[in-house]
Design goal:
The complex is a heterodimer of chains A (about 300) and B (about 375). By secondary structure, chain A is mainly α. Chain A has one domain: Orthogonal Bundle (ABC transporter involved in vitamin B12 uptake, BtuC), CATH 1.10.3470. In chain A, about 70% of the residues lie in helices and about 0% in strands. In chain A, helix 1 packs parallel to helix 6. Chain A starts with a helix and ends in a 21-residue tail after the last helix. Chain B has about 375 residues and is mainly alpha-helical. Chain B is built from 14 helices and four strands. In chain B, the strands form two sheets. In chain B, strands 1-4 form a two-stranded antiparallel ribbon. A two-stranded antiparallel sheet of chain B has the order 2-3. In chain B, helix 2 crosses helix 3, helix 4 runs parallel beside helix 6 and helix 11 packs across helix 12. The longest helix of chain B is centred in the middle third of the chain and has 30 residues. Chain B is globular, with a radius of gyration of 22 Å. The two termini of chain B are about 25 Å apart. The chains are: A mainly alpha (about 300), B mainly alpha (about 375). Chains A and B meet through helix 4, helix 10 and helix 13 of A and strand 1, helix 5, helix 6, helix 11 and helix 13 of B.
């Protein structure tokens, strides 16, 4: 294994990690407010296709990013409307959102399949920092999305655990009636969280089509939305732990295409099972431990709230 | 100033669910029409073709019935778990596991006579689907691990197991490196009923019927509903929750697995990555629209089968098949939206007045 290929692996680990982390943070915020959204894959696809098309039209990748975020947020708010406002089953609505998002994205993007990108978001130029051995390419040779993911991660940790707004949001996810009694609008908080969650999934999708694989094809999200859902659990609903998980799972995605070059005789397909297997293991471990201490999952996760029925 | 408030009705609106379903269908067709027009297609022409190719003649019906088989079995799998308040999101993976189980039997029993091989394949399919549900079932029954995420994760795991098999040990040596297994032996195909319709239609119909009767006419079904509505009541009545959870989730997995076996032997000829085509996820929508009732599952599966077959038929006139995916999702969203008004009515309440009292009296 050469140094260059090792650095290549680490660069890809951080890049894939950020891709997963953006979407996982969105799901985390949504779940913290009590809304399980299994539509991540659909929101990502909508973000990916919209960002690509906007960049294709305007030639400006930043407009692509903004449009991708908005598309993800709007798609997410559809879930919010049905589950938070109308009180529909979150599982059913979320899965339908995945189906809808994938179908809609395929329909929207049918004319730009395989087209060259109008613009890409290239790595940020950090000047001399990029020349530092190892750390240069791995930390400072990355696309803007990576730094965006770090910023959003820190911001979510800070807002969720250190501010009143974060407390209110968590209250909506732990005990909606308590949050309501404290004068917060549960519907407003949850819609906000779902919208932000959708926006971040959209950003993750935009990362795919503006930087990682700068083109649009049906199925480009390739199940990464499900890994994001898994990451929230793997990270025990904490932004910091989710970041560690994102690097681990990102490393697996990066390793998948490199096993052969490293001379490892193991099926890359079987390797890609690991995120899902480990998430099941973590879930079981959480439940076993839950006999002694409370589960890290938001208590009201998955339940609708109607003030009239409290 | 007045604000709108949803107040629970004394009892759900009669005939409300079919009505909500119809609203969903109309909404979906309307949204679809807008999308079609935006891409310069004529909605009426597209819908007419979809209808003719899915329900227009005997051949069309046979295709729709074939499509309704995996959708109905997957929907039933979700509904069986759902009637006890459990979510089996893993039907997609269980279908794949079922197809793998059936393919495995076909591999070892390639020389067996037809009836024996077919029976073996279907049994293999049920066992395969059940095996995939085993971990979520045990984890839920024994230590209370939420089954939603475990079953969901196993979808991805099963897909990768399948990919590994068809890229590796089970790959057809004559496939020019395409990831697929050799064709099934001739006697491994389900007999044809009419047109393209195969015997799986009868199997699915029978299984749905049996579960329908079991759910509504037997003590087992009654216990299931009791356990689903209140764990405390169930415990008080001496129903063993752990055993119920275990059997229901395993049964659910087995039924979804059967869908995979029937699909393999009825329509697919060989194992490929696309053997399920999202039937497991669509099955969740089917079960939700059917309110977790087996009889409803059959009806909704037929409609979704028609939408899917119709969706494929419009590709020839240049309309992407994704239109049918969008239609299916909007049928559900429309029905969810309308379904709220089956159970609730919209009232305008003066600002500052809490409507909670009213809701409680009504409930």
């Amino acid at each position: 294994m050469t140094e260059a290929s090792m650095i290549g692996l680490l660069v890809a680990t951080v890049a894939f990690g950020a891709l997963l982390y953006l979407a996982a943070l969105g799901e985390l915020i949504s779940e913290k407010a009590g809304v399980l959204n299994l539509g991540v894959e659909g929101m990502m696809a909508m973000g990916a296709v919209s960002a690509f098309m906007a960049a294709h039209q305007t030639g400006n990748p930043w407009i692509g990013l903004v449009v991708g975020v908005l598309a993800g947020a709007l798609t997410g708010l559809l879930h919010g409307w049905f589950t938070v406002v109308l009180g529909a089953e979150q599982v059913v609505s979320g899965l339908s959102l995945t189906i809808l998002g994938l179908g809609f994205a395929a329909y929207m993007g049918k004319n730009v399949v395989g087209r060259p990108p109008g613009a890409v978001l290239a790595p940020v130029d950090w000047g001399p920092l990029t020349d530092i051995p190892w750390a240069g390419p791995v930390l400072f040779g990355q696309a803007p999305f990576v730094y965006l993911a770090v910023l959003v991660g820190i911001a979510s940790w800070f807002v969720l655990s250190r501010t009143r707004a974060g407390l209110a949001l968590r209250a909506a996810g732990e005990s909606a009636s308590t949050a309501d009694a404290a004068g917060h609008s549960v519907v407003g908080l949850r819609l906000c969280a779902v919208g932000i969650g959708g926006g971040l999934a959209g950003a993750s999708g935009a990362y795919l089509t503006l930087t990682l694989t700068p083109q649009w094809a049906e199925g480009i999200t390739a199940g990464r939305g499900w890994i994001a859902v898994a990451l929230v659990i793997f990270g025990a609903w904490r932004p910091g732990r989710a970041a560690v998980g994102a690097l681990l799972f990102g490393g697996l995605l990066a390793l998948k295409t490199r096993l052969q070059t490293f001379g490892v005789d193991f099926s890359p397909i079987l390797l890609s099972m690991l995120p899902y297997v480990s998430t099941i293991a973590v879930l079981i471990a959480i439940s076993v431990r839950a006999r002694n201490r409370p589960s890290p999952a938001p208590a009201a996760l998955g339940t609708a709230y109607r003030r009239e029925e409290r | 100033m007045k604000r709108p408030v949803l107040v629970r009705r004394h009892r759900p609106l009669r005939g409300g669910q079919p009505l909500a379903f119809a609203v969903g269908l109309i909404l979906a067709l309307a949204v679809g029409a807008v999308l079609l027009m935006a891409a310069d297609h004529e909605p009426l022409r597209v819908y007419q073709r979809m209808f003719e190719k899915s329900l227009g003649d005997q051949n069309a019906w046979s295709l729709t019935l074939n499509r309704a088989v995996p959708l109905g079995l997957a929907g039933l799998a979700v509904a069986v778990a759902g009637s006890m308040g459990l979510w089996n999101i893993g039907a997609e993976g269980q279908i794949l596991a079922g197809a793998m189980g059936a393919a495995w039997v076909a591999r070892i029993g390639g020389t067996w006579p037809g009836p024996m091989l077919l029976t073996g394949m279907l049994v293999g399919a049920v066992i395969g689907g059940g095996l995939l549900a085993l971990v979520p079932a045990m984890a839920r029954a024994r230590i209370g691990v939420n089954e939603i995420i475990t079953t969901l994760m196993l979808n991805e795991i099963a897909l990768r197991l399948l990919q590994w098999l068809i890229h590796g040990p089970w790959k057809d040596p004559d496939s020019y490196n395409f990831p697929l297994t050799p064709l099934l032996p001739d006697q491994a195909h389900l007999p044809t009923l009419f047109g393209r319709a195969h015997f799986g239609v009868i199997i699915a119909g029978a299984v749905i019927l049996v579960f329908g009767v079991a759910a509504s006419r037997t003590a087992w079904g009654y216990e299931l509903r009791v356990a689903g509505s209140s764990a405390d009541t169930a415990r008080y009545a001496g129903i063993s929750l752990k055993r119920k959870i275990l059997t229901v989730l395993l049964l659910s997995g087995g039924v979804a697995g059967l869908a995979g076996g029937v699909e393999l032997s009825g329509t697919a000829d060989r194992l490929t990555e696309g053997i399920s085509n999202g039937f497991g996820y669509a099955g969740i929508i089917v079960a939700a629209l059917a309110l977790m009732r087996p009889s409803g599952v059959a009806a909704v599966a037929l409609l979704f089968g028609a939408v899917q077959v119709g969706g494929q038929s419009i590709q020839i006139i240049g309309v992407p098949a994704s239109v049918s995916t969008i239609l299916q999702a909007f049928i559900l969203f429309g029905a969810i939206g309308a379904g709220v008004f089956v159970r609730y009515s919209l009232r305008l309440v003066p600002m500052g007045v809490d409507a909670s009292g009213e809701g409680e009296i009504a409930a």
